[in-house]
Amino acid sequence: MLDDAAGFSTLHVSRHPAVLHKLALLRAQGTEPKKFRELVREISWLVGYEALADAHLRPIEVSTPLEPTVGAKLADRIGLIPILRAGLGMVDAMLELMPTAQVWHLGLFRDERTLRPVEYYNRLPDTASVDLCLILDPMLATGGSATAAIEVLKDWGASRIKLINLICAPEGVRAVAKAHPDVAIHSAALDRQLDERGYIMPGLGDAGDRQFGTGLG
Ligand code: PRP
Ligand code: URA
């Protein structure tokens, strides 16, 4: 594992102790799907909280029981774009943080032979209806899926896009940064490398299978 963003200018890796503690449990082979889903949710909340630090606000008047004062209201319309399947487990946490967010699902799977993304579901409306898009996917491996998702959103008219992952590989960060240097990546960890099958090492295995109990054996 690499300690920090390793010089990638678009990458923000959380250093929060709560994230690091939960991440070790998430990686552990013996963590069952129920606990795994809880951890995906909890780490997503913490990484998402950091990713939203520069969301736009506007001032509002608030009356406390004692006097009027000025408060803040979120000015950005937020769009959450979970990448099916594995990104689904990150949605509830992000909705807790941003209850008014719109959720637009995007279905992509990685062809196991070519490692290229295949799009199978997209119900985005004709024109962009949000100001800030947060793509949710626990794993950034080759970067093929994330790059394709960003292209879909840019074609849709999205101008501010962030990618929220739990674990990323240097290969994927490099690929996304090259194709989309304007997209910030927020992650709980930057791991060492991909293996010959395109899995993140040390990683956590298959994030979709571990959440939904669909791994073989
Ligand atoms: C995983 C993961 C990403 C993708 C990352 O999804 O959730 O979407 O692989 O790999 P990449 O960076 O090389 O594109 P997968 O294709 O396994 O689909 P699933 O979520 O349905 O399990
Ligand atoms: N997708 C996963 O779920 N895990 C990996 O390590 C790579 C891609």
Alpha carbon gyration radius? 18 Å
Q: Which ligands are bound?
A: 1-O-pyrophosphono-5-O-phosphono-alpha-D-ribofuranose, uracil
Shape: globular
- The H-and-E topology, N to C, reads as EHHEEEHEEEEEHEEHEEEEH
Largest sheet: 8 strands, mixed
Mean pLDDT: 95
Q: What is the highest CATH level, the class?
A: Alpha Beta
Class derived from helix and strand content: alpha/beta
Number of strands: 15
Short description:
The chain has helices at 17-27, 33-51, 91-97, 144-156, 170-179, 207-212, and strands at residues 11-13, 57-63, 68-74, 78-84, 102-103, 106-110, 117-122, 132-136, 139-140, 160-164, 167-168, 184-187, 189-190, 193-194, 200-201. The protein is an alpha/beta fold. Strand 4, helix 3 (91-97) and strand 5 (102-103) form a beta-alpha-beta unit.
